[in-house]
Design a protein that fits this description.
Elements lengths: L2 H6 L2 E3 L5 E8 L2 E10 L2 E9 L2 H22 L7 H8 L1 E2 L4 H16 L9 H9 L11 E3 L13 H8 L7 E4 L2 E4 L12 H15 L4 E6 L2 E5 L8 E4 L12 E4 L1 E8 L28 E6 L2 H14 L1 H9 L5 E5 L5 E3 L12
Antiparallel strand pairs: 1-6, 2-3, 3-4, 4-9, 5-8, 7-8, 9-10, 10-13, 11-12, 13-14, 14-15, 15-16
Helix pairs in contact: 2-7, 7-8, 8-9
Length: 352
């Protein structure tokens, strides 16, 4: 697609180099906040360091990890390891990063009774998600929120039935560095976990560089540690599903992660009945919720659980999260009703 076409769809030019949002010495050390495009969204980081040099070096390492891992896991880039796996049906010498995230995705499927399933890629593609939200070579473009709609007719029942036969995590074969599919035509999407996994890798890069206070945010997939300043937590507003400022909640984080999945993010019909979250068992998109936010010890887990709870629905989803240590969630229904796990209120800053 041409640059003009991308701009017409709501993409905006953006620089490859991070933009400095804030930089300077405060009462508790040197503060640095940067943002730049990445993974089809805007990636930002805020940190507190003992010196400008340490802050700059840490930020550079975090963004380098973002670029390296995105190049491995971008299914839209024909040169990536994930794209090669999807094209050939097997990799005998897969990069360790790919095997690690595939194993984690399969593990999350078991934790969620199959609700998180990375083999739904053919169904997402059928709905209209087979083209990149941001083309692989266009790192200088970032999508504007709420402009990810692509309309098209629903798939015919016969094609849908054929696609559903390709879905099922039990058809993935794993041993050593080998990843393979049982059936021709299968493919993986890691869209429901890779962004969180990469955010975790960026956070690890900051920790390795000696940064103890930071927040990394990739389009709502957030990892935090420490505090922005003494006596105050990191403050996170939960995305309004209508993309306004009616935040479902505002929470405080001293560490850990939070991720939100919503039908408003990327959808294929004006009514948002077909969107990027799909269930292979039903061959469609679940519509009993419009937003799911999950907190967890790490962002990859929060990312995957947010997708899974969306598939499970309110009752089963809340039950799933209640049974997991260190996790909480907030659900928003189409009528605006909000449901939360028993421990969510301890995170909320509203009314305090």
């Amino acid at each position: 697609m041409s640059l003009e076409g991308l701009l017409a769809l709501g993409f905006e030019p953006a620089g490859v180099e991070p933009t400095v949002v804030e930089a300077g010495r405060g009462d508790d050390g040197y503060v640095l906040a940067l943002e730049r495009p990445g993974m089809g969204t805007r990636v930002s980081l805020s940190l507190r360091a003992d010196s400008p040099d340490r802050a700059d070096a840490a930020a550079a390492e975090a963004f380098a990890r973002l670029d390296r891992l995105t190049a491995l896991l971008n299914r839209y880039d024909s040169g990536s390891a994930l794209a090669r796996l999807n094209e050939t049906g097997s990799l005998r010498d897969a990069p360790p990063e790919l095997t690690a995230i595939v194993d984690l995705a399969l593990s999350m499927g078991k934790v969620t009774c199959g609700a998180f399933d990375p083999t739904v890629a053919p169904l997402v593609n059928l709905f209209g998600g087979g083209e990149p939200r941001v083309p692989p070579g266009a790192i200088a473009l970032a999508s504007k929120p709420g402009r990810n709609q692509r309309t098209g007719p629903p798939p015919d029942p016969a094609t849908l039935a054929e696609i559903r036969d390709l879905i099922g995590a039990e058809r993935i074969r794993r041993w050593g560095r080998m990843i393979g599919f049982e059936r021709s035509g299968m493919s993986l999407t890691l869209d429901g976990i890779a962004k969180g996994w990469i955010v975790d890798a960026m956070a690890a890069g900051l920790r390795d560089a000696g940064i103890n206070d930071f927040l990394v945010d990739a389009g709502g997939d957030i990892r935090a540690r420490g505090r922005p300043e003494t006596g105050r937590p990191w403050t996170v507003a939960i995305q309004d599903p209508d993309l306004g400022e009616d935040w479902p909640d505002v929470i405080g984080l001293h560490g850990g992660a939070v991720a939100t999945s919503g039908s408003y993010e990327f959808y294929f019909d004006p009514g948002r009945t077909r969107h990027h979250i799909v269930t292979g068992t039903e061959g469609g998109s679940p519509n009993h919720l419009v937003s799911v936010t999950v907190t967890a010890p790490d962002t990859a887990t929060a990312d995957a659980l947010a997708t899974a709870v969306f598939v499970l629905g309110p009752d089963a989803g809340l039950g799933c999260i209640e049974g997991l240590t260190g996790c909480e969630c907030l659900l928003v229904a189409p009528d605006g009703a909000r449901h939360a796990t028993s421990g969510w209120s301890a995170l909320s800053l509203q009314g305090r």
